[in-house]
Amino acid sequence: MATPLSPSEVKIACTNVSKTFIQKGTQEVPVLDDVSVGVRENEFLVILGPGQCGKSTLLRIIAGLETPSTGSVFLDNREVTGPGADRGLVFQGYMLFPWKTVLGNVEMGPRLRGIGSKERKAVAQHYLDLVGLTGFENHYPHQLSGGMKQRVGIARVYANSPEVLLLDEPFGQLDAQTRIFMEQETARIWQAEKRTVLFVTNNIDEALFLGDRIVVMEGKLPGHVRTVYDVTLPRPRDFTDMDFLRLRQEIIDASQLTL
Amino acid sequence: MSSNIANETTCAFKDRRPWTLRRILSNRYLLYTVSLLIFFFGWDYLAKMQGQEATASIARPKEVLLALVDLWENELAEYTLLGHAWMSTQRVLVGFVLASVIAVPLGLFMALNKYVNAVVKPLFDLLKPMPPISWVSIAILWFGIGETSKVFIIIIGTFVPCLLNAYNGVRLVEPELYDVIRILGGNRRDEILHVCLPASFPAIFAGLQISLNSAWTCVLAAELVSSRSGLGYIIIQGMNLSDSAMVMGGMAVIAVMACGTSLLVTGLERLLCPWKRKIAGL
What we know:
The structure holds two protein chains of two kinds. Chain A is built from eight helices and ten strands.
């Protein structure tokens, strides 16, 4: 299906990553089983899988928030040992700071890295403009709609200028219309400022609309990679394009899942 | 682009309905007034029912007002009404500030450090269920009938809610918010400074409000037992003189003072938690 990756172009490499959670002291819950995924520089990689297949755990492992039980994650050939500003994570539940304004949320990353007030405000403003939130700098998160909150989440990650963006079902809580609009926006923002992106979703249309490649994960725990697809459709993509629908059918048939 | 954003924001519509009778009758402020008028007239009626003698157990609203004016103008045990009110408020504020300055940081430390928690929690759980009023007698035995014993009782009464709320405020912080700080490159100090403290502010202030209530209860109890000044002293004097107007006047002044200090804390909360202010204004 997919063209193999040459070692030189790999930005992130997960090699034989497994994760087992211990529940109630003794009960072992295997969540990931021997997952190996490579991501190219400035590639938009989508991890597609149904709920409860360990895809969010994989993302948290890459982010450094969880440690793998076996295997390791490499970023630019350096092993990941913890969270760091070189990777940015966008959460499904937005996770904005309710006590900070939109601008305060977005400038948080540069602020933690000790960048001066003037400079970080300029950076934050740039990304607020990019995500289309000009004029909302002094609003508080609870004053925004779900779509706008996630724009803040995306701008906050961009403002920290990470090498890798990790998005964990970022539009899972949005209604269908806003979701499609946000997908278009994500494609636009990514094309404006390319980054290496890992995007986790359970929505096949979202995966096909956004991804350069799609990693399909198996539905039952422990999760593992089933197939990898190259998506060479031209951008901007169209949900009703014949090639789009053909590939969609192909993935559904192969994975025997109602995605 | 911009039009999409505009559609996403909530719009406030101006109320342009005409002033119908139904709307006037259902007006909030009119109903407030009606409710208060019914209360005062009902009170006055009840007081009138039981006769005109000065020793009647329910004073009429007018008599309460006159008693207050009398206390305002003439000294009772060296202080006028204002002096007594200030004595009580002073005790409340000193005890309340001392207690919160110790209890809030201690609660935060307990929530953040399991060793501090392990040392303090059992002692705290042991003393927590004891009603603060039960300390009145022992406080007088220890510190005499001066200011120290009163402030001590207030500290005892305000300590528990201050500490508990600060502790719970930290424990209830959304754990993923810490992940955000770590992802953005922050350390433990940043987690505490940018997530822990602001997230627990509302709970801390809820605790301060409860504490303040408790402080007024405690100061009153202390003053009723032994005092030559304060609003509790006015009440106990009224009781000894069988002057119900004086007792009720003292009660009314306490209500006003407690309300005032509570507003002070609310004001402080609005100052320190601007994001809460915007929620209330929506």
